[in-house]
Structures are given as C-alpha cells and as structure tokens.
Amino acid sequence: MNIIIKTPLRYFGKPLILFLLVILFLPLMTSAHESGETAQGGGEKGILFIAMGPSNNFAMIDIATEKVMKAVAGPVNPHGIAVTPDGKYAYLTSRNPGKKKKSTQAGDFPVSVVEIDSGQIKTTINVGGESHHVWMSPDGKQVYVTVPSVEGVVVIDTVMNQVVKTIETGFKANSIVTSPDGKFIYVVNKGDDTLSVIDRGTLKVIKSIITGKGPDHLAISPDGKYISLTASYANEVWMLKTDPLKMVAKAPVGKGPHGIAVSSDGKEVFVASRGDATFSVFSGPDLKKVHSMKLGKGPGHVKALPGNGYVYINDEVEFRTYIYDPTSRKVIHTIYLWPEPHETAFWIPGK
Fold first, then answer.
1. 0.90 exceeded by pTM
2. CA distance 326 to 304
3. What is the CATH number of the domain that holds 338?
4. Is 224 helix (H, G, I), strand (E, B) or coil?
5. Using one digit for the tens of pLDDT, what is the confidence trace for 106-158?
6. Which residues form the domain of 153?
7. Domain count, the chain
8. Cβ(283)–Cβ(290) under 8 Å?
9. Residue 26 is assigned to a structural domain of this protein
10. Does residue 180 sit in helix, strand or coil?
11. I want to staple 61 with a disulfide (CB 3.0 to 4.6 A). Which of 48, 86, 193, 280 is the partner?
C-alpha cells in the first residue's frame, strides 16, 4: 500500500505518534461488515476522499472495491474536503487541534491544495482564520470555505489559488452547498440560527431566513428545489423550498443531529445524530420518517452517492465509515478509518 506522510517539523510530538499509528492501522482499515460478509464493493468507478482530522491526512477509497487505496498527507487537523471535477486536486480545511495549540496567527490553519497523484501540497491559502467546511463550485472554478472567525464565507479562485472575496453571512458560519446549476451558494450560520443565500454572480448575500436552533449541516436536492438541514440544538430536521425561500416541513430527529444527505433522486433524506448515536431516514420533501436505527457511537458526516445509491456515514468515535444500503435498510459494509473520519468528497468520472 502506498502511504504518503509529510509533516511540518513544528507539529512533531503527539501528532507524530498519530502518524506512526496510521502507518500501523491502514492495512487493517478495510473490513467487511461485522457479520463476516466479504465486501462486494459499490460497483461504481470512482474515489471517496475522507478528511481524517488528527492524523493530518486524508484517505482515498476505491468506491468499486471499498478498499483504502492510500492515505495522503494534508494540512494540520483537516476537517473539510472538496475535489476538483477532474479529480486532480483536493482542497482541505484546517482547524485548531486543541486548546493547548491556540493559534494567534490567522494564517496558521490555511486551506491546503493537494495534488492527488503526487500527494504533494501544491500551495496553502490564508483564509483569515481556522477553516471549517468547504464546497467546490459545479464548474470547478471556485471553492467556498466557511471561516467562523470572519463570520462568513471565503471565496477562492482555483486557477490562481487566491482569495477573491470574503462574504459576511452570520455568526459561526458552518456548512455550505451550492445549487446544482452553480447560481446560488447556501450557508448556515450556527450562532444566529440563519440560512443565508449568496448570488454567485455578484458574490453578495441576497436573502437570509431564520431556521431551527443551531443549524449545522446542509444538503440540497438534485434539482435544486429543496434545501434540508439539521437543527442540532432543537433536535430537528428542516426542509426548505428554495424558490421562494421558506420552510415547508420539519420533523423531530435524534439528539444532536449533525450530518445530512439527500438521495440522488431526491426522494429520501438521511440524518446522523451524534448525541444518541442514531441514523434516520425521511421521505422528501414532506419529512415523514421511514426508518431509524442505532448506529455506532458517534455518527457524524453523511454523504450519499449517485450511481450505487449507497450512503456513507462517518463515525469519528469508532473510527469507521458505515455503508448503508437504502434498499435493504441495512449497513452492508464497514470501512475502518483511523483516527477521525470527518467530511467526505467523491470523484466519479463523468459525474
């Protein structure tokens, strides 16, 4: 297995131990589900990319075989990840790994651009503070990063790899998505319970709406007509129509809902709740609960793939990614990823 690990000298110490453990654990990271099944793979060509926090790496997983291909060195404590449409570059955010390493410099935790084939960090981009979530525009020309300290979104031009705009949206700007046609950018502001809409042409906020308490993660339907979000402090999932922007449904969900995703046909919404370790499925857009189950100890980020239709749920407490089949309503495989799998991106040729 080809594992690339490059670490700045100033981060030796505890992170070095983490890196050494990654070397030991990666050969054991892939596994069938605990029933003893042999992993059959998702039958879809492409790659999953998962940011792995304290390891300072991200994992690359072959979607067809569900095997870890390699771990690639990224920035310090990467949380968010986005990949260019051609699959050549990954953009990773960086967060402060702990109170003992409190940063006093805005550029200490930049966005890193990694050349995927070589595993080299091509450049780093100072976004004015710790960066959290990241989203790639459909055409690959811009990257949008939430930076809580600037209370908004930083826009990066992917040709120049430079910041071209900082847009204030609200307190504790968090999750971010774009409309499928790339015309609008949506961001939730967890600290003031709002959802902001940015016009991509002008890069200005054109509308904001009050949501449930503690809006955390966002997902958008494939046709762009609906936005769903988790209200983490209210233990709710919300559904909003995008035109006109308004709430059309909400439903109770498990404690501390975090990650959310929408099926490729827009008919189902998937929610992971970290507070009580549950995974729930709702119909869209009416948010009628159709399935719920206990899952691991800390299900967090969720990603639904087009093609095979599987849902990937990362558990940062149990160091694994669960692969859920919406047809059978079961977790059919498990991929072990140490130490903390966070945000997931994917690259599928032609999609």
1. no
2. 10
3. 2.130.10.10
4. coil
5. 667 899 999 999 999 999 999 999 999 999 999 999 999 999 889 999 999 99
6. 13-31+47-99+108-347
7. 1
8. yes
9. yes
10. coil
11. 48
